[in-house]
Amino acid sequence: MASIAARARPVAISTDLSVERKLAGINIFIAFAALAVGGLMGVLQILRYNGLDLYTPAKPILPGGYYQGLTVHGVLNVLVFTTFYIIGFLTYIFTKSLGRPLASSRLAWATLWVMVSGLVLAAIPLLTNNATVMFTFYPPLKADSLFYIGLTLVVAGTWLLLVNMILTRNAWKADNPGQITPLPAFMAIVTMLMWTISTIGVASEMIFLVIPWSLGLVGGTDPVLARTLFWFTGHPIVYFWLLPAYISWYTLVPEQAGGKLFSDPMARVSFILFLILSLPIGMHHQVADPGISEMWKLVHAIFTFGVFFPSLLTFFNVVASLEYAGRRNGGEGWLAWIFNLPWGKPEISAQIVAMMLFAFGGIGGLVNASYNINLVVHNTSWISGHFHLTVGTAVALSFMGITYWLVPHLTGRKLWSRSLGVTQAWLWFIGMGLFSHFMHELGLRGMPRRTDIGGAPYVQDEWRFFLFFAMIGGLIMFVSAIFYYFNMIMTLTRGKKLAEVPDFNFAKTLSGPEDAPKILDRLLVWVTVAAIILIINYLPTILDILNTATFDVPGRRVW
Ligand code: HAS
Ligand code: CU
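Above: the input entities. Below: the structure tokens describing the complete assembly.
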């Protein structure tokens, strides 16, 4: 009898997100600690490019000089900062949007601990100059095995979040039959699905190739196979970085700007397209690689043009939402409404200027993707210019912008200075605008990337002018970063304690989820479509490489 009574009682679903808040806070803290060290390396690089060598005085802590610094820069900024931030941010956004905690809080803590132990393991060889192999760790460069094992653990940790999300969404679906997943949760889980499928590549590279090889269990490896598996993940990883920023642009920025999201169904279509099209295009990073058929390189190039479209949908949807906000705030005219956006809010300034620079980064991406033109820009500093606009601004500056409201929300402390935040955002815009423009220009004039230009005998006179302005841009960004960290440290230590923790709402929509076809919410269907295209676009090449691979290339320590 008792059990029947218990069953009849409506089950009260916990809405306590305290674990998720803690996890978001810890992950984001680790992320920004990594970015501080990684970012500092960037300043050393651009100074060295201009003949100011700080590597020599830094030798006691950075024995590997330029190349170790560059590896630390890449690994900490694009692997550690991004991954930890994203896992923290998505954990919180997903649960907040569903209004319930993750299905398993133990699994959620395990996610963090697996990732942190991986980070510690990888950091040891990285900081002791035993893994100076760049963030792409192409064989035959060979790092200490701890580096590979550590990074693999970080990735494996992220999978646990997906498991937890699936369990949580299933439970939510059971409690809300027939309802479509709320947009922020939908976007978060699609991002994690895309990412997890993509990691099959790098996980296979680690487990079957480089870990046994770095442990000395096998004598040699195959660089072409390793690079192909790396880029299998290495392209979609850029969307793993980007999509959380998009989640903010779609579901939070319209509200913060005083408006509504223009279209919920269009936003869902865009994310489904990312799930399908981000995965089968990694070979656009291998256009210059031998041993891969030109036909498949071309197919990947064509699909790369395909993945441009969900970003164009985003462009339209987000700008339409901003226009709605601007007009609601009293704005008029074709473009004059832009001035009625709340530019005094640092979260708005940071994210809108991030969008503006991203438009240029996106256009440059098309140049990269254009098979024959890629041969002009590949491995030149053009590419560094491209990814500083994309991951270095669209992603990093948006992530900073988000913390301007999220840190007060998580800690109950008021942001120390709004105007310093706004200044920081515009300095980043100016600094990165200069830096990336001149890096693109240098690339067109043949300056290689990932090269110790300061020590190169072939530096062209015409490069010096551009290098100087790239340095000015880099130094402005450095000031921007100092402003950011100062503001955050002051917020955490001196920020006014608020009587009530400021809550936040996701954006309302002009065209809502009720207009979205139900099929969009059937994730298994889209995962299947993604898997089929992925297999078609990759299997022939992987089989071909496996057929010809000799696995006899020994490792090299060239540093
Ligand atoms: Fe890329 C290389 C192609 C996007 C990151 N990319 C890289 C590397 C990185 C990177 C890190 O096809 C170097 C990797 C390495 O170390 O070797 N990329 C593209 C294309 C896109 C693209 C076609 N990349 C990204 C994103 C990244 C990223 C996003 C990080 C987050 N990329 C390539 C290719 C290579 C490459 C080749 C290999 C090159 C080589 O040879 O090595 C596109 O998906 C971009 C689409 C974007 C847009 C912009 C949409 C704009 C929006 C904002 C609108 C709002 C505004 C605000 C303007 C179409 C959504 C208005 C303001 C108001 C006030 C209203
Ligand atoms: Cu790519």
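Note for the figure: Strands lie at 261-263, 509-511.
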